[in-house]
Amino acid sequence: MSEALKPLRNEIDQLDRQIVDLLAQRADIVRRVVKVKNEHNIPVVIPERINEVLDHVAGIAADKNLSPDVARAIYKILIDYACAMEKDILGRE
């Protein structure tokens, strides 16, 4: 590996750790969301909310000169994971 790349790769590694930490925090919140949805008979999948989140992150990405389509794709995966978590948790209760 080029020595010139090493510090940049270290920065990316640090950011990756932060991103995974944020994903873990997001998952913790999803677990709390499940409890509220269960208590109030709210469905796991709410298409309007999904679209709202996807539009929101696409806008943020565009403001940061990033691809809105890539942001949507990443968040679609996160949302699918969150919905699967919710279904799994509700299936165990």
Explain what this protein looks like in three dimensions.
This protein has 93 residues and is mainly alpha-helical. The protein has a single domain (6-92), classed as Chorismate mutase (Chorismate Mutase Domain, subunit A, Up-down Bundle). The protein has helices spanning 6-39, 47-63, 68-92. Helix 1 packs across helix 3 and helix 2 (47-63) packs antiparallel against helix 3. The longest helix is centred in the first third of the chain and has 34 residues, at 6-39. The mean pLDDT is 95.
Features:
Chorismate Mutase Domain, subunit A, 93 residues, mainly alpha, single chain, 3 helices
Secondary structure topology:
Blueprint: H1 6-39, H2 47-63, H3 68-92
Basic shape? flat
Based on secondary structure, the structural category is mainly alpha
**CATH structural fold name:** Chorismate Mutase Domain, subunit A
Q: State the CATH architecture.
A: Up-down Bundle
Gap between N and C termini, in Å? 50 Å
Instruction: Please give the largest β-sheet.
Output: none
Radius of gyration: 17 Å
Low-confidence stretches: none
Q: Please report the number of helical segments.
A: 3
**How helical, in percent, are the residues?**
over 70%
* CATH top level assignment: Mainly Alpha
Report the count of strand segments.
0
Strand content range: under 5%
CATH superfamily: Chorismate mutase
| Count of the domains | 1
Strand-and-helix sequence, N→C?
Answer: HHH
Give the rounded overall mean pLDDT.
95
